[in-house]
Amino acid sequence: MLDQLLLGFMTIMEPMNFLAVFLGVLGGMIIGSLPGLTAPMGCALLIPFTYTMQPVPAITMLVSLYCGAMFGGSIAAILVHAPGTPAAAATTFDGYPLAQKGQAGKALGMACISSALGGLFSVVVLILLAPVLADLAIKFGPPEYFALAIFGLSMISSLGSKSVVKNLLGGTIGVFIACIGMDSISGFSRYDFGITHLMDGVSFIPVMIGLFAAAEVFRQAEKGVRKIVIDRKISGLLPTWEEIKSVKTTLIRSSLIGTFIGILPAEGGTVASFIGYNEAKRFSKEPEKFGTGALEGVAAAECANNSATGGAMVPTMALGIPGSGTTAVILGALLVHGMRPGPLLFIQHTDVVYAVFIGMFFANLMFLGLGLGGAKVFSQILRVPTYVLSPIILVLCVVGTYALHNNMADVWIMLICGLVGYKMKEYGFAAAPIVLGLVLGELIEISLRRSLIVFDNNAFIFFTRPWALTFIVLTVLGLCSPAIRSWVERRGEKNKKQQAADSQE
Amino acid sequence: MKKLLFSVCMAVLALGFAVQSGVAADDKYPSKQINWYIHSSAGGGTDIFSRTAALRLRRILKVPIVISTMSGGSGARMLNHMMEQPADGYTIVSLTNSNLATMARGRTTAQREDIIGIARGCYDPQSLVIKADGKHKDIQGILAAAKEKPGSIKIGVAHMASIDHVASYALGKAAGVEFEFVPFDGGGEIIVALLGDVIDMGVLNPSEFMGQYEAGKVKPAVFLVADRLEGFPDTPTAKELGYDVEMATWRGVGVKAGTPPEVVKILRDAFQESMSHKIYQNYLADNSMGPESVLTGEEWDAFLDQKWPIWKETMDELGYVEK
């Protein structure tokens, strides 16, 4: 395998291939940083241009765009509170508060470093374990997906606003929105009120753009023309070595989570970043700091979503099963270039496969350089006054939402969600639980009902399959952890008092 | 910003075309831009088919051909839009099984008689695929098991009320057995479920299972066609087993009924020429489809006529017709 990697390295070093990596990353960062323009969209737009290219630069460019866009999403998330890509939604939680505190540069630097480290880790995993890890995807049946999704949903209680009840309500609303449209199990439409547009359901990107970006524009407009944005100074572009060291365990945890979730078919960076973020919060010594501008939160989310890139490539290449929307497009590109993804890809097209792996590795290094070097350039967006920036963001919201399916209905959904999100915040509801409910709601429903069909309505199946049980146990532990923690603390205090009392005697 | 600029340019261009098309004199077809609508998303199978077919078509017809997505209600929005356009051959639509299903379910104003077939470009036979080393050895074994214990055989299909669902339902009906259907989001998920022993059998096209078949992990148990496929000489067909079931994933093109016959002829000839070109033939070969996929003119219309009642009837039987 070493000589194949070396050969791949030589291939990528050819000027044209190297240029493909560079252009892919740069294009990805631009697309990723614009809210509404997502990585799958960028890849789909790029494919026609790769028809005439050789397979190596063509696929490498797409994969580089994927990596670049995954990081690029954090730029808008941190600077304007609008996730540039869905996967950057969790980055807004701490990234934007940091920017408000005048530490946008530091947040960007941390996002860049943790994205690159997560990405590099996942590529190493991809290279080393592609065939081995791909087997895991097959072990994941509907019950495992259900348990995983429930585990994901359990974090709603601790996400967003301080009120657990309001978070749960938000999550329920999200799950309800996920019910609109085609019921995949019966094939009938639900809650569509006879409107053709709603028959396909509400896709979560318009909802997200509305709740996060448009709502923010409306809030800014309410404040009137003020100098808040201009006043923000960008200082401390790079996180210090101590700061990086302090998030070491978070980075390792998020890399593992992201890569693992990326490998699962049908789940990608979005779920990875939410779980990565929540686990960081759960394990943190200061969980109350999360959501108010913790560098650790940015690191956890960004590291997880970028490590999902390498993970998602594992089943795409090894099984021909895309692990995310973008890899679905990349899979199409592989077919266009005459390579059928599957177990045989590694035998028939070894040269291309390893060149793409090495290219992906370089893409992660490349955006590290571009991100850190260009952070100042990207931060310029902060110097633009609100009355210029807000209309631009709103236009991008509309264009980006429309470009999804060329469907005006999505734009209306986005605008409605924008208004709802704007009012909602006044009453103390956060957007994140709604989005999470929407993202996971469909998976929860379909995997539950699929499990019941497959296992003849046996509900115990979720407790008898090892992987499913693991996630159920984790969910229960997660839900009980605040209670357990306070019990342990109380016990500790009691013991201390006891000791104090003992020593006094 | 680049994207925004691009979008603005496209909008201006589109506006230009719109104005131009309003004043163009329609003496000779085609004299202006042709709008081609697809109902599914960019990058999907129908999108790739349409774009590949349009490559040569532009040179042959010498007019701009713009392919755009009009998603919503599995083609309902696209078909409704077509019904609102004049029958002049400047609006063409891609047709798939999903569109027939949508029409049969009564979710659009369009019905079979509102469409004239121009050409078929894809014909990917449906097959029922089993695990290579699974507990079921062949299709006879599966049918016997299903007969013995109704509902015990779980079949993975991509969405309900889809070609997968209808195809496997039709085979079950012909064989007098009942299957349990498990809907998935696509062929990839079905293969994983099959390999993971979640389902007994999956409805897949050769282009979907080739990778895993070549690796020896899955094998087709039966093809829902009349004659054995060249690439699969050992796999029986439904017809051989005595079941008159022929189902495939196909994609084609149509225009609104009422389009002048001379315009229909020009379009049919142009598609015939475009799809005979090696660019299109290579696309078919890359996707494990044969040159017989291409069907133009009346043959394609007859094909639609033959499929339409099957969809009507099955959708009704399965209770999917909205009344």
Number of helices of chain B: 11
CATH class of the largest domain in chain B: Alpha Beta
- What is the N-to-C succession of helices and strands of chain A? HHHHHHHHEEHHHHHHHHHHHHHHH
Calculate the terminal CA-CA distance of chain B, rounded to whole Å. 48 Å
**What fraction, in percent, of the residue positions of chain A are helical?**
over 70%
Helix content of chain B: 40-55%
Low-confidence segments of chain B: 14-25
- Average pLDDT number of chain B: 86
Structure write-up:
The complex is a heterodimer of chains A (505) and B (323). Chain A is an all-alpha fold and 505 residues long. Chain A folds into two domains: 2-448, no CATH class; 461-497. In chain A, 77% of the residues lie in helices and 1% in strands. In chain A, helix 6 runs antiparallel to helix 18 (350-379). Chain B is an alpha/beta fold and 323 residues long. In chain B, the strands form two sheets. Chain B has a six-stranded mixed beta sheet, with helices on both faces. A five-stranded mixed beta sheet of chain B has the order 7-6-8-5-9, sandwiched between helices. In chain B, helix 4 packs across helix 11. Chain B starts with a helix and ends in a 6-residue tail after the last helix. Mean pLDDT of chain B is 86; it is low at 14-25. Classes of the chains: A mainly alpha (505), B alpha/beta (323). The interface between A and B is large, with 54 and 51 residues.
